[in-house]
Amino acid sequence: MMNTDLARQSNLYNADYISWIETTVKKLKHQDYASVDWENVIEEMEGMARRERQHLRSNLIVLLLHLLKWHYQPSKRSGSWKGSIVEHRQRIEDILEDSPSLTAYPSEVLEKCYRKAVAQAAAETGLPPETFPQGCSYSISEVLDTNFFPE
Asked: In 16-78, which ranges are continuous DSSP H helix?
């Protein structure tokens, strides 16, 4: 493929993302590999992996947030909190089912996500951050266990 074609593909990526995707998919389906904008394909694939990890972290933070609220504000427990705990466990389960290579990732990011959840829990509840343990007192297996609700 000529350099001008590559430049045109790269410009399409910046000007009309959906058109770039559709054009790239057609080229891949027709095995026209020489005219594929590989630089941006690689960038997109790397971005997809980052987004999957980010979605997992985001769901883990919300799950930890609601577990903390459940644990440290028992008089304010609600169906909404319980529903959020169930929902975010299911979301994490779905992510791990779709991408088994991420199975160890929740353990790797548990403490970082916990710190963010504590900051958010303190902001939402009005409780001082010192109310919550400095490190996560729940194991990752407890956090993801559908029957675990801290008392």
From this structure: 17-29, 38-72
